[in-house]
């Protein structure tokens, strides 16, 4: 009789459990099983465990919760600290390894100082597994969010044409800049920001103001001939996270670009680096514009700068159509645009002040000056002048990668 009663009790508990299990959370199952076992008294834990498949240890934990009322005001399924630990907690080196793959740091002795964000979650997960980490692509996405990354729209991220050596050139630039920083040589990213109208013109973005009282600006964006435009040209020091911007009032020419580098060197570079140790300057630049690889004036002006400073100047150009990968774009210019969003650039002084006031959590510092020189557009450089340059192209794409050394006089 006792055996039959036991079977009947197990069957009754099993039926109740099957009816309720889909409605119960993990915590709810634990507490229900504990309450059921408590109602049967001695032997109740074994009975409920046999009927439901819930371990006797879980039921005992539930009984402790009921007795001590530890979970009465608890929110969530588990008590604080319960459940599976995050990968970032169990393997503290994992976050740094992932960050090195996505956006490597440029301080100290970086392995890859230029940002590479075109890899998918699966590719990143595969590379992490090759380094010895156990991780899925879904967990990789979670960790990227912890690092502050988010999915971005794919506007202007695909090029219609892609050079066959595009990725190889990226790798070459990374290796060159990493080596330069390791040897404590300055490495800079240069580019020109788009020209800006000066005056009461609409500037993209939003800024706080009294409700219903937005700043009033001109209806049309026709340039004011009296106020004109400005052409900011920037230098971003990859190793020091510092920037320099010359705000030009005339044409964006190669002379203007190199004079900005000259100004940065004398005003910031010489104070930041030990001149006795510095022998070379590394420059990463786009393929087009005033600093394009085909611009003869750019190379002639760099030769003059090399003669003047005594520095070897190593230039690395990004392949066509990949200007967005240049460090200055996402480490400096993007923050300048955020800093002056929603504010009309009513004068040249306002532009200089807004650029100079740009800061980031990573400690970015920018110095901005107004360059009032008049740079003539359309200057021709003869073939004889080009042949006289002390320039040596690298064995890998010499048109993109070359070194200009001081001329011996």
Your description of this structure?
The protein is of the alpha/beta class. The chain folds into three domains: 2-68; 87-146, no CATH class; 166-404, Ribonuclease H-like superfamily/Ribonuclease H (Nucleotidyltransferase, domain 5), CATH 3.30.420.10. Helices cover 41% and strands 12% of the residues. It has helices at 2-20, 26-40, 44-52, 56-68, 87-90, 93-102, 121-130, 137-146, 166-182, 254-272, 296-309, 327-339, 348-356, 383-387; strands at residues 187-192, 196-197, 229-237, 242-248, 280-285, 312-317, 365-371, 391-393, 401-404. Strands 1, 2, 3, 4, 5, 6, 7, 8 and 9 form a nine-stranded mixed β-sheet that branches. α1 (2-20) crosses α3 (44-52), α2 packs across α4 and α7 (121-130) packs across α8 (137-146). The longest helix has 19 residues, at 2-20. It is elongated. The protein starts with a helix and ends in a 5-residue tail after the last strand. Mean pLDDT is 81; it is low at 104-118.
How many structural domains can be distinguished in the coordinates?
Answer: 3
- Terminal residue distance: 115 Å
* Proportion in helices: 40-55%
Strand content: 5-15%
User: Could you tell me the mean pLDDT?
Assistant: 81
CATH class (first level) name of the largest domain: Alpha Beta
Number of strands: 9
User: Which homologous superfamily in CATH is the superfamily of the largest domain?
Assistant: Ribonuclease H-like superfamily/Ribonuclease H
> What does the overall shape look like?
elongated
Give me the strand/helix succession: HHHHHHHHHEEEEHEHEHHEHEE
Q: Pick out the low-confidence regions.
A: 104-118
Radius of gyration: 32 Å
Number of helices: 14
- Largest beta-sheet characterization: 9 strands, mixed
Question: Which structural class matches the secondary elements?
Answer: alpha/beta
CATH architecture of the largest domain: 2-Layer Sandwich
What name is given to the CATH topology of the largest domain?
Nucleotidyltransferase, domain 5
